[in-house]
Design brief:
Layout lengths: L1 H8 L3 H6 L1 E11 L2 E7 L1 H14 L4 E9 L3 E12 L2 E14 L2 E7 L4
Parallel strand pairs: 1-6
Antiparallel strand pairs: 1-2, 3-4, 4-5, 5-6
Amino acid sequence: MREFVAAFNAQDSRRMLALADEKIEWISLTGAALKVDAAGATALQRSMDAYFKQCPSCRSTLEWVQSSTQRVVTLERAEWIRQGERKSQTGLAVYEFRQRKISRVYYFPAE
């Protein structure tokens, strides 16, 4: 997880994908609805590259991390600068692993 966040903060989508399963699914939860934001490594790389282009100041830190055999739950703090002002929010994420690679990510609504 720490390597994945470091790759995110470096805005290095290739390094992120090296830690992900080829069939990774990136899923957002909103209320009772699930939305697949990216399905597969190629889709995730396109999504991340577009995100980094839109938000070059975006960075993330792990407030806390809990793990089980196949999942890691994190509270992540996102920070960015908009119109000269630093913004911040936290969000809960659940990462599932298959053969030591991230296979699925669930993001809950930001707080």
